[in-house]
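User: Hi! I have a protein structure encoded as tokens and I'd like to know what sequence might fold into it. I'm fairly new to this, so please keep things simple.
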């Protein structure tokens, strides 16, 4: 089978499309014929060799955690899923023609494989950080870097829970944020005052790692009410860094419920073939994403 992998840490140029042995579903696992794989910032952080405790890496390594596809192997002890089912979930080395998943759910009706591949890690992260930051219905949550996959999910999850949201993003994404129910403003010079004009803030999320933790703490008034998923230096500011996933099966079930109720939709901004995984990483690292980027197989 074809698989994207890397033999050394480094930039996007270390990614190679190689021939590899097919993986197989062990106990408690399923294998899918991959139709699409999600592109997440953690993918290129791992490729660069960043020390992420939740994702130890041995070289050579495959790439990718999220995928959607068709079940073609069911491991021992697994029930509730059959060969031929369309599922989305999380596993390892998902930029490949076949991948083993450790957590999965049936794809909601009407969802394409490309769309489904963009949800697993994104929704788990969004649910986790909303919980960890402790924002309650009726309060206001500030989201820095709100137009990407996690931000798109946070805005919609917050709206579903009765939480008021202020989102920052580039000028081109202001209408997109408003369409997701957020009060929108641009980042850049003067952004703190622009946020203040939109009202007081009870909690804040840093999703972009753009060096704004001091300002977020200033706006909220308490570093314990700020959570970052993108700035590894967050603890130095008294801010919690959230990098360890919670229950992925629970997150997938929540995603399926929200999607089925029409309360969650994350658009796919761009899809790339396996051979262009490096380009997908370049674009992901550049930021300014509206929704999700995925690999199609």
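Assistant: Happy to help. Inverse folding works backwards from shape to sequence: for each of the 297 positions I chose a residue that suits the local structure. Here it is:
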């Amino acid at each position: 089978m074809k698989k994207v992998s890397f033999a050394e840490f480094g930039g996007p140029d270390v990614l190679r499309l190689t021939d590899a042995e097919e993986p197989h579903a062990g106990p408690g696992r399923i294998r899918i014929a991959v139709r699409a794989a999600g592109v997440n910032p953690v993918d290129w952080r791992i490729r660069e060799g960043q020390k992420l405790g939740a994702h130890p890496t041995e070289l050579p390594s495959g790439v990718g955690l999220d995928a959607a596809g068709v079940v073609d192997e069911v491991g021992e002890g697994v029930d509730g899923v059959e060969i031929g089912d369309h599922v989305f979930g999380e596993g390892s080395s998902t930029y490949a023609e076949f991948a083993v998943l450790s957590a999965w759910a049936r794809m909601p009706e009407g969802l394409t494989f490309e769309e489904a591949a963009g949800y697993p890690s994104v929704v788990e992260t969004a649910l986790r950080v909303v919980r960890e930051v402790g924002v309650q219905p009726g309060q206001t949550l500030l989201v820095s870097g709100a137009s990407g996959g996690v931000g798109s999910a946070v805005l919609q999850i917050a709206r579903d829970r009765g939480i008021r949201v202020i989102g920052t993003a580039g000028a081109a994404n202001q209408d997109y944020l408003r369409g997701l129910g957020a009060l929108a403003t641009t980042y850049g010079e003067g952004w703190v005052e622009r946020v203040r004009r939109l009202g007081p803030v009870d909690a804040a999320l840093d999703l972009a790692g753009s060096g704004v933790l001091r300002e977020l703490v200033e706006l909220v008034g308490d570093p314990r009410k700020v959570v970052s998923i993108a700035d590894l230096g967050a603890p130095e500011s008294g801010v919690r860094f959230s990098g360890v996933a919670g229950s992925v099966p629970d997150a997938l079930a929540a995603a399926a419920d929200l999607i089925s109720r029409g309360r969650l939709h994350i658009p796919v901004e761009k899809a790339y073939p396996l051979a262009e995984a490096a380009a997908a990483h370049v674009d992901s690292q550049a930021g300014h994403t509206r929704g999700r980027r995925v690999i199609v197989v």
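A useful reference point when you look it over: The longest helix spans residues 120-133. Feel free to ask if any position seems puzzling.
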